[in-house]
Amino acid sequence: MSYITEEILKIEKKWQKIWEDNKLFQAQNDTAKPKYYVLEMYPYPSGKLHMGHVRNYTIGDVLARFRRMQGFNVLYPMGFDSFGLPAENAAIKNKTNPKEWTEARMNDMVAQMKQIGLSYDWSRFLYSHSEDYYKWNQWIFLQMYKQGLVYKKKSVVNWDPIDNTVLANEQVIDGKGWRSGAVVEKREIEQWFIKITDYAEELLSDLDKLDDWPERVKSMQRNWIGKSEGCMITFDVVDGTGKKIDEIKTFTTRPDTVFGIKYVVLAAEHPKCIEWSKSTEYESPVKDFIADVAKETLIERMAEGKEKNGTALGVFAVNPANGKKVPLWVANYALMDYGTGAVMAVPAHDQRDFEFAKKYQLPVSVVINPKDQDALNADTMSEAFVEVGIMTNSKEFDGVSSDDAKLKMAQWMEEKGFGSRTTTYRLKDWLISRQRYWGTPIPIYYDDDGNPQLIPEEELPVKLPKDVEFGKGNPLETSQTFINYTDPKSGKTYRRETDTMDTFFDSSWYYIRYTDLNDKCIFDKSLANYWMPVDQYIGGIEHAILHLLYSRFFLKFFRDIGLVDESEPFKRLLTQGMVLLSGEVMSKSKGNIVDPDEILKKFGTDSLRMFILFAAPPEDQLEWNDDAIEGSWRFLSRIWKLVEHRFSIVEDELNVSDMDDQDKEIERERNFTIKKVTEDLSSYKFNTAISSLMILMNKIDKYKVPEGALTKQIVLNNVTRSIIQLLAPLAPHMCEELWQKCGATQYSIILEGWPSYDEAALKQDVIELIVQVNGKLRSRISIPADSSKEDVQRLALEDEKVQQFVSSDAIKKFIYVPGKLANFVV
Fold it and tell me: Is residue 1 over pLDDT 60?
């Protein structure tokens, strides 16, 4: 019998049923055992697994199986991030309920996951649209509200005037609504926020504790949090006559340049742009400019080389350092998400400001000159001077190093009362309101005065209604059964909140819910303390900022309210690379998708797994290769044939004294491979682990066992069993089947444990040594492994090939690298 496709499919189904029937992968809450918690980022139920999914889950599955065999109590669960906009859009398009659409796709993906043989603990399966799950979303919201971390305020949104709904940024295409085609407007509406900024410093500083996270991810989070130390400066705002009409604050990290301010710019989203230009000749151009900026994404506005555009507001800011009026502008390079949304502009010493000033013929004033060079001429400058220099045109600070002036001028501004030293963060509070149906309802109602009130905990969950209409506006507002809330104590009817939560809320704590899915509390503290943190978290680099940041914030909040002791959710993070075809990312639009189902039918699960693991290190991109997957299949076939044709169960034990040199060499290779594969799997070097198994297999093929050679058969049996055990986490179905053929004592190879190696067996009695003469290879000799330098020189000189090039009286120097080579310099 050969290892052919029909046989593969039978074996896969057989072992998947055995695993499921015996509940082999169900984690036990046995706190006496060492635990290992491995988790992949739970997926959105898109409907079908792609190769990126398969790669991600294969990596996690290998680790889970490896750690189980090592004796760890392994938690390896799966679920779905099943709320979200795509399901709602599909419901509108197909005139169906999002729940039906979502669950159909979940079922398809679960079937594929089981077909691949992923060793998930399905008893802990969860999905975020389950009432049993989003009940606890609502409970968390109430706890955050009680702790002062939740508030409501006005915020600018993308508004579709035809569909009467708020649009996410990705739903705005060329400034128009993705579905209606209407020109998108900017509107201010009341929305719910979470004060993640209260945790900004801890979220930043604790990154230093995450030794097993990629530095790239930590750097991205540091930049997103964006800690800046500088000075907050207050400017009076005056009209053209000099009459004060308002104040505005700007944050700067360059207080040393305050005397060089020549204008102040506001972000297009800043509400003062409209207010200050209203009923003036500037109103129309300001509105037009704001509308143009609204068509651009934040990424486009921040792009390097992006042209700086703006328009005047018709009012002025008074520089408090020197009392001079400077114009106020709205500009596309000012961002509402940074500082206060207002930026003091110093063209001589900031390149963006310089480019803007040159374009709009605004003045430039030098306040820092280069050290030991001629003074700068503002009229002839071709770029901003941004280096450390010597202060000038800055009153009593002239002649001071600009580095020293930062602190001195900040202190001076504090003394004068118009500035204050402060620390700011780019991180903003988290807007969680969504005016959509398919998400967690926010557990709030409004009293007669319009004040928000908490839905009592005993009434959770606030369930999504079924009597809704999709198409225009927020579907929840069409449900009378939902929008009207009756207070059980007073019997009065109030208006219920119709916003739902950002789906990042769902994914910010699911990892700890897996530790305990009881319905009495959010999770048991003792179990959370046992299982947390996740030992290995796996997912794409695209989630490096928001998901991971929110997850870290949630666990710190849970800690602060006494639910868990741990402060960081993920001990080790792996961001796997993408799967490419001909150098391009696979996508339906490009027509370059490789369907996992077709590969499974042709080669089977284990061959696909082996290819994915061997083709590239997990953090690197993987280039799809049809020939390479066939190579994986051939390698597995060789091992199958090894058991089928050469393995023979022998009751006798191995007697070392009966072993010859060839036997000892195979035994040494067996022990070496166990050691190497153990180390490689522990450090996620799956490709080199497979290489070691291939090398061992090549040596097994050359190891001859004459008929009746009992010792050699025992040696062969031992190395065969070991290679099957080592391969088991990587190609589990075939290895389970072969293990039974090799005289298994347990129903699963996982229960047999991980093979151990004998350190003493790794030592070689005899080694092969390269012999060089004047650096050129002249011979190879076999020597005792413990030979001294003098012995090596003597044995090398006794070799006939070496004697052709060396005479003892011509030797100038003898070099010996132990275990590697000997070199005569003659």
Answer: no
Question: So what's the pLDDT on residue 589?
Answer: 65
Q: Which two tokens stand for residue 660?
A: 């010859």
Q: Please provide the distance, in angstroms rounded to a whole number, between the alpha carbons at the two ends of the chain.
A: 60
Closest CA to 607 of 598, 338, 699: 598
Q: How many CB atoms lie within 10 A of CB 503?
A: 23
- Residue ranges in 467-561 assigned as alpha helix (H): 480-483, 510-513, 525-531, 546-560
pLDDT digits (tens, 9 = 90+) for 333-376: 998 877 899 999 999 999 999 999 999 999 999 999 999 899 99
Nearest to 565 by CA among 505, 515, 502: 515
Q: Using CA atoms, how far apart are residues 452 and 192, in angstroms rounded to an integer?
A: 11
Of 144, 93, 222, which is closest to residue 432 (Cα–Cα)?
144
Query: What span, in angstroms and rounded, lies between the C-alpha atoms of 676 and 663?
Result: 20
Phi and psi, residue 163, nearest 5°: -80, -10
Strand order in the sheet with 452-454: 452-454, 444-446, 493-496, 484-486
Percent of the chain with pLDDT over 90: 77
What rounded mean pLDDT belongs to the chain?
93
- Percent of the chain past pLDDT 70, that is, above it, reads 98
Three-class SS string for 178-194? CCCCCECEEEEEEEEEE
Pairwise CA distance, residues 278 & 272, whole Å: 10
Pair 816, 810: CB distance under 8 Å: no
- The Cα-based distances of 260 to 208, 386, 391, 522, 702 in angstroms read 38, 13, 11, 56, 80
788-811 pLDDT tens trace: 999 999 999 999 999 999 987 789
Which residues are bridge partners to 780 per DSSP? 770
For residues 325 and 376, the answer to whether their CB atoms sit within 8 Å is no
Q: Which residue intervals of 728-788 are DSSP H helices? A: 732-741
Q: Answer yes or no: pTM beyond 0.85.
A: yes
Residue 629 has pLDDT above 60, yes or no: yes
